[in-house]
Specification:
CATH class of the largest domain: Alpha Beta
Structural class: alpha/beta
Oligomer: single chain
Strand content: 15-25%
CATH architecture of the largest domain: 3-Layer(bba) Sandwich
Number of helices: 16
Helix content: 25-40%
Radius of gyration: 25 Å
Largest sheet: 7 strands, mixed
Shape: globular
Number of domains: 3
Length: 513
């Protein structure tokens, strides 16, 4: 019998919404089924990669077992995409009210406030509703044998769950990652929040320190500042979103500063002291050694991920892994045990829900149907849901320079796009990189209010082998901010109007009299 959920993972506060969540994605009274002989596929981990692998294989006629020790739905549902985007949307609403006067809408001073308890209750309610898609019962109804409990490989073709042993022809490891806590003296006594616990809050911290300027740190820092927290972000690199081109990240930084976020760059937290309900963080600048003391009510750590490889019996299964990077796979996602594959965060540098979904589809084809798909062939976009959003796909300008890849870059400022002007959202751009001398798209970066929606057009073009000429020839509705993509493609078209072409056109026009 699975353990009650309270002994496995945080599901606080245990109100009606979280009770509904738990009843669906880890029912305390769930009875594991009797194994149905040898499974075509056993999937360990019921996050996005595991769920897609299981239901996809079962839908194609395979006999599938799915094993999960915590909450089905994984990080995405419980402590990642779903709850964070609910908070971000509420933060957008708060910012819209604050900035309403620019549109001629007057809101009297002090006539509105943020009810953080209601914000979090809304998040829990919406998450509980979405959880029906990832429920144990739904997957059971779809033909998947769902086992709740710790999975441990007992051999190269067997895995144990409690006192049951499952035999399989193929396996998939999809156990994901968890938040890492950096080795900062005193941090272990500070009850630091991570993405796995921040969504249990019911009261807004008056002062919040955020350690880490990656996507999670940026999204939460900006959102909590918009709710009214005094937020200080500490980042060891020279700016936020160090993976992105600086011209893009700097736009996000300026927006965060306008929202009141204090940012300390090239700075590391060196110690944490707990004084009653207060946390005192000492942070040292790497530039000049200056020490800054930050006083906070809570600390949110967003500084890396650790793969969930413990207790799986990977050595017994003949699966090679690294404690820092996770399970090792080839380009077809097969592990050192040719019968076992892996998908999602546990084996990928691209730790995104949509990447896990795409990798799961590769596993199904390669493991069960003699497919030869390669993970390296995927065009993987990503988006940081700051305001404005920052989305990217393919090669960046910095990567092109580092690898000496010859590119032509075409750029459109949102200030030149009518809809962005009308929306008062002119800070941002579309930047597309092409193979030098051609219209073949190698990558793109978009900074815009809805960059995550816009990047898919470029990704689809890359996947379909379409270049900027095809985008330039595609009619875009006017006025939309996506017109910036068409304008960028038009910039490429203008480069084709060489002096020789101009002379030819003039000759043709003369023939028309």
């Amino acid at each position: 019998m699975p353990k009650p959920i309270e002994s496995i993972i945080e599901a606080k506060p245990l109100d009606r919404h979280n009770r509904q969540l738990v009843s669906r994605v880890h029912p305390p009274d769930w009875q594991n089924p009797e194994p149905r002989g040898k499974y075509h596929m056993v999937v360990v981990g019921a996050g996005t990669a595991g769920l897609v692998t299981a239901v996809g294989a079962a839908g194609l006629g395979a006999r599938v077992a799915l094993i999960e020790r915590n909450l089905m739905g994984g990080d995405c549902l419980n402590s990642g995409c779903v709850p964070s985007k609910a908070l971000i949307r509420a933060a957008h609403a708060a910012a819209s009210v604050r900035n309403a006067k620019q549109f001629g809408v007057r809101i009297a001073e002090g006539s509105y406030s943020v009810d953080f308890g209601k914000v979090m209750e809304r998040m829990r309610r919406l998450r509980a509703g979405i959880s029906a898609h990832d429920s144990a019962q739904r997957f059971s109804d779809l033909g998947v044998d769902v086992f709740l409990g710790q999975a441990t490989f007992s051999g190269k073709k067997t895995v144990r769950v409690g006192d049951q042993e499952l035999a399989f022809s193929r396996g998939c490891i999809a156990t994901g990652t968890r938040a890492s806590l950096p080795p900062i003296p005193g941090l272990d006594r500070a009850q630091a929040l991570t993405n796995e616990t921040v969504f249990t809050l019911t009261e807004l911290p008056r002062r919040l320190a955020v350690i880490g300027g990656g996507p999670i740190g940026v999204e939460m820092a900006q959102s909590f500042a918009r709710f009214g927290s005094e937020v200080t972000l500490i980042e060891g690199a020279g700016g936020v979103l160090n993976r992105e081109d600086r011209d893009a990240a700097e736009i996000v930084e300026r927006s965060m500063q306008r929202d009141g976020v204090t940012m300390l760059f090239s700075t590391y937290a060196t110690s944490v002291t707990v004084e009653g309900d207060e946390r005192l963080i000492r942070a040292e600048s790497q530039a000049d050694g200056t020490v800054t003391e930050i006083r906070a009510d809570r600390i949110l750590v967003a500084a890396g991920r650790t793969p969930n490889t413990e207790s799986l019996g990977l050595s017994e299964a003949g699966v090679n892994y690294d404690k820092q990077t996770g399970v090792l796979v080839d380009d077809g996602l097969r592990t050192s045990n040719k019968r076992i594959y892996a998908a999602g965060d546990i084996c990928s540098a691209f730790k995104f829900t949509h990447t896990a979904d795409a990798m799961a589809r590769i596993v199904i084809g390669n493991a069960l149907f003699f497919g030869r798909s390669k993970a390296s062939a995927l065009n993987i976009p990503w988006c940081t849901y700051s305001d404005p959003e920052l989305a990217h796909v393919g090669i960046s300008e910095r990567e092109a320079n580092t690898s000496s890849t010859p590119i032509d870059t075409y750029r459109t400022e949102l200030a030149d796009v009518d809809r962005a002007v009308l929306d008062s959202e002119t800070e941002g751009f579309v930047k597309i990189h092409c193979k030098r001398g051609t219209d073949a798209i190698l990558g793109a970066t978009i900074v815009a209010r809805h960059a995550g929606e816009m990047i898919s057009e470029v990704t689809a073009a890359m996947t379909g082998g379409l270049g900027l000429r095809s985008i330039a020839g595609t009619i875009h509705p006017y006025p939309t901010q996506a017109e910036a993509i068409r304008k960028t493609a038009d910039a490429y078209q203008r480069t084709r109007l060489t002096p020789a072409v101009k002379r030819l056109l003039k000759t043709i026009l003369r023939l028309h009299g």
